[in-house]
Amino acid sequence: MKTGAKMAATMSNVDEIRNRVILGEFDIKNVHTTDYPGNYPGYDDTWNLQKFQKNFRIDVVQMDETSLEFDMVGIDAALANAFRRILLAEVPTMAVEKVLIYNNTSIIQDEILAHRLGLIPIKADPRLFEYRSAGDEEGTEIDTIQLQLKIKCTRNPRATKDSADPRELYLNHMVYSKDMKWAPIGNQADVFADANIGPVHGDILLAQLRPGQELDIVMHCVKGIGQDHAKFSPVATASYRLLPEITLMETVEGEKAERLKRCFSPGVIEVENHGGKVVAKVVNSRLDTCSREVLRHDDLKNAVKLARVRDHFIFSVESTGILAPDVLVTEAIKVLMTKCQRFLCELDSTEME
């Protein structure tokens, strides 16, 4: 019986090393993936498609117009990180590439203004456009969107004499992204009649003018990826974290239970009344930020075990508004599939040689 118990304990310890990242007081254990073939006697870690299909899943937790939170379970960190990097840098969008400044009498230098214009998200589906050919300076209706910004500040004739408020004294003194107007090229007016092409947000401040100052600018938007410039990145943030796992190793009661609750993020630990005693209970480990505050308390640190599930990734995707977040995830998956296919083709060509 002792031998059986010892083997069970050993197996349990091996499973923990394989599947959990342990958060200690001064270190983090099991940070590296170790479940590769032949590393653990008695474990079959050879990659199997049926096994992967059985364990892998994606669960959508929350989604709205600009943000998406979903769980990606049963995948290695390398693939999860590749997916994150593709979202940041390899899903294409349309952005201002060339700025033709015909008149700028504002106090903002041409270069600064052009940079500000380039970073404004443009509401246009990049899947409907082609990449502009290298060396093509003009662009065509299939690869270029043209925007115009023409505005002049004047005095407001209806302003009161004793007013000091610029909003009342001047007209068009604040230049916003909503002043950028789409100028269709070729047959774009017919093809994209319902597309409502323009800046995603109309309230982005571009410049401030005073009477007599004006801007006359033409912008060319092209298709690109964040790998070339951050202005093409379709997401504001794309990140993941491992699912936290909190285990109470002993019953925590009374004042210690209340203190334990305060050591974690709201909603992680709750206290319940059991037979007149206040007892701590883990309610939702997912909400924890893994601050390890509890490990600063000598009388509590041995009562709790902190870990993260190695193959359970909580993804957060926040779109800039150009494409819906679920569309971005779908496009990122397509890019990853294309990369895999290209790699397989390279392998086949190498074998043939």
What is shown here, in short?
With 353 residues, the chain is an alpha+beta fold. Helix content is 26%, strand content 31%.
Features:
18 strands; 31% strand; 353 residues; 4-stranded antiparallel beta sheet; 8 helices; alpha+beta; 26% helix
Overview of the structural elements:
The structure is a single chain. This protein has helices at 2-19, 49-55, 77-89, 110-118, 166-169, 188-191, 254-262, 325-352, and strands at 20-23, 28-29, 57-63, 67-73, 93-104, 122-123, 145-152, 154-155, 170-171, 174-176, 181-182, 198-199, 205-208, 214-224, 235-248, 269-274, 277-282, 304-319. The chain has 353 residues and is an alpha+beta fold. Strand 3 (57-63) and strand 4 form a beta hairpin. Helix 3 packs across helix 8. The protein is flat, with a radius of gyration of 29 Å.
Strand content: 25-35%
Uncertain residue segments: none
Question: What is the overall shape?
Answer: flat
Helix-residue proportion: 25-40%
Mean pLDDT: 90
Got a strand count? 18
Radius of gyration: 29 Å
Biggest sheet, in brief? Answer: 6 strands, antiparallel
How many distinct helices?
8
- Measured distance between first and last alpha carbons: 59 Å
What is the string of SSEs from the N terminus onward?
HEEHEEHEHEEEHEEEHEEEEHEEEH
Instruction: Briefly note the structural class of the backbone.
Output: alpha+beta
Provide the fold topology.
Elements: H1 2-19, E1 20-23, E2 28-29, H2 49-55, E3 57-63, E4 67-73, H3 77-89, E5 93-104, H4 110-118, E6 122-123, E7 145-152, E8 154-155, H5 166-169, E9 170-171, E10 174-176, E11 181-182, H6 188-191, E12 198-199, E13 205-208, E14 214-224, E15 235-248, H7 254-262, E16 269-274, E17 277-282, E18 304-319, H8 325-352
Antiparallel strand pairs: 1-2, 1-18, 3-4, 4-18, 5-14, 6-12, 7-11, 7-14, 8-9, 10-13, 15-18, 16-17
